[in-house]
Each structure stands twice: as C-alpha cells, then as structure tokens.
Write a structure and sequence with these properties.
The protein is α+β, with helices and mostly antiparallel strands. The protein folds into two domains: about 130 residues, Mago nashi protein (2-Layer Sandwich); about 130 residues, no CATH class. About 30% of the residues lie in helices and about 30% in strands. It has seven helices and 13 strands. The protein has a seven-stranded mixed β-sheet. The longest helix has 20 residues.
C-alpha cells in the first residue's frame, strides 16, 4: 500500500497563489486583432513621424489636367499649391488631425511603399503623372507614377486618391467648370498672389543675382549681382569677372517690381507662351520664360533671378 502524499501548508498556499496568478495572466493576454496590428504600425512610427512629410504632386498632360501639389506635415498641417487647371491657383493651407496623418502613413505601409520602384513609366503618351513621397526619420522615398504605365499597381493609384480624399483637395481643384483653362488667367492670378506676398515683405534693401538669355549683345547676357537700396538700384556688378557693366542694358530688370512689370507686359501682350516660377517665401519671380510670338524667331526672353538676400 502506497503512503499518502502529504503537502505542507506553505507549499499548498504557494501552489494556489501561483495558479491564481497564472489564471489572471491568461485572462489578461491581449487579443491580436487587425486594429491592434494597425496601432502597432502607428506606435512604431510615432518617433519618426515627428519629422515625417507626405507629398502628392499631379503633373501636366496633353489637355486640361489639374496641376497642383499637396504637402502634409506630421502635426496635420496641409499646404496646397495650385498651378494650373484648378479652381484655386496659388497657395492655401488647411489642417487635419495627427491621427489622420498616421492613418495615411499606415496606408503607405500597406502598399510596401519603400519597396516599390521609384518610377513607373511607359505606355501611351500625353498622360499625367502622380508623384508621391514619404519621409520617416532618415527614410525617404519618392515614386513617380506615369498614368500610362502598365506596371503600376492599383494599390498605388488608390493611395494617391486616398491622400486627395483625406485633405479634401477637391475644394481647391474644383469641378471642370470651375477650373482655369486659360494659361493667361492662371498667370494673372499667380502674379497677383505673389506680388502681394512680395509687397508684404516690405523689402527696399536687397540684392539678387540676375541673368538673361536672349538674342541680344553678349554683354546683356552676363550674370550680374544687382543691389537695391531704398527701392533704387545702387550697383550692378558682374558675377564672373571684374569688367565694368553697362547698367543701361539692365535698366528694365534692375529691381523686383520691374520684373513683375515684365510679367504684366507679357500678359497684356498675350504672349504665345509664358512660364513663371516664384519663390515660395518672398514671392519674387525666380524664372520668367516668354515667347511673345511663336511665328517670329529670336524674340524669346528668358530671365533667371536667384540668391535674393535682404539687406539692412
């Protein structure tokens, strides 16, 4: 006959306590759901998200495709920049929640964005592109998706559309009837917006680098540094040599207000082609390309303005 097993009081209490702890631990184990999995993505990127930026840019096509760019910052700030064939030309700002930004980051994660090719090209010509980018900490990725490409995944198109939907870009893009089809209308609006931005700076003392490309004498095309004091040209010096500059050759271009006047004149004359780029901070034109008449040779004008520096 076997002897009965005797358990001491202390051992019995210990066994009971451990059993209770084990039972409680089992009950409190988290359930791995899709929601928790998505939350883990957000938590994983929380630190990086502080320096993260999402962008979507839609480019031109052979036709009236909306041309604009959207930038989304980690805190939910949204910057829209409309260029052409949109209801709103120029810059607008808006706000979405940081949680919405995180959900967008999760959408990038779902399509394995950092593993996608950087370019999707080929296929029919004359279609627009959608250029997206995502920066998370030191990770940065840009994908150029040409709409004619047969290789682009549908998930990428869905991601691009999702960005538009989250920021409600339709309020700026507008309907077909609201979009600006006339390039001169677009240029006039851009000129008005950027001239106002420049005037808000109240800069009367500044310098900038200027160069011109045209069918004209060589001395008129040399890069120069133009210094303006109290709204008047103070000096014009060459960039590449010490030869004296003929100031008369630059009389039409020796201040930012005069450069705005060049754009005004091109719009008034209904130039065949007019392309302008503006500095987003100060509003001054950085590039002015004008073809006054496509039927006439050698009357094109290309102006470049850079390195603008406010002076005391």
């Amino acid at each position: 006959m076997r002897s009965p097993i005797v358990i001491g009081t202390g051992l019995l209490v210990s066994l009971i306590f451990n059993a209770q702890v084990l039972a409680q631990s089992t009950v409190q184990l988290p359930q791995l759901t899709a929601q928790n999995s998505s939350q883990q993505i957000f938590n994983k990127n929380t630190k990086k998200l502080r320096s993260g930026i999402i962008t979507l840019q839609r480019t031109a096509c052979f036709g009236a495709c909306p041309i604009y760019k959207i930038t989304i910052f980690p805190d939910g700030r949204v910057v829209y920049e409309g260029e052409r064939f949109v209801k709103v030309v120029g810059k607008r700002t808006a706000k979405i929640s940081p949680q919405a930004v995180r959900r967008l980051v999760a959408e990038f994660d779902k399509v394995n964005y950092f593993s996608l090719p950087s370019n999707y090209q080929g296929g029919p010509t004359d279609l627009p592109s959608a250029i997206t980018s995502l920066t998370l900490g030191r990770q940065q990725k840009t994908v150029n998706h040409y709409f004619g490409s047969p290789n682009a995944p549908q998930a990428l198109t869905a991601l691009e559309n999702k960005i538009d939907a989250v920021v409600n870009s339709q309020r700026w893009i507008g309907s077909k009837n609201e979009q600006t089809p006339n390039p001169n209308d677009s240029n006039s609006t851009q000129l008005k917006v950027n001239r106002q931005l420049w005037n808000q700076q109240r800069l009367t003392n500044y310098r900038f680098t200027f160069s011109r490309s045209c069918f004209c004498v060589p001395k008129a095309t040399q890069p120069v540094v133009i210094t303006v004091r109290n709204g008047q040209v103070a000096s014009i010096t060459p960039v590449n040599n010490n030869e004296p500059v003929d100031a008369e050759l630059f009389r039409q271009y020796n201040s930012i207000p005069k450069l705005f006047g060049i754009i005004d004149d091109a719009i008034a004359k209904k130039a065949s082609s007019l392309t302008i780029k503006y500095d987003p901070k100060f509003g001054y034109p950085t590039q002015i390309n004008i073809d006054y008449n496509q039927q006439v040779a050698d009357e094109e004008l290309y102006l470049s303005i850079s390195n603008l520096e406010p002076l005391k």
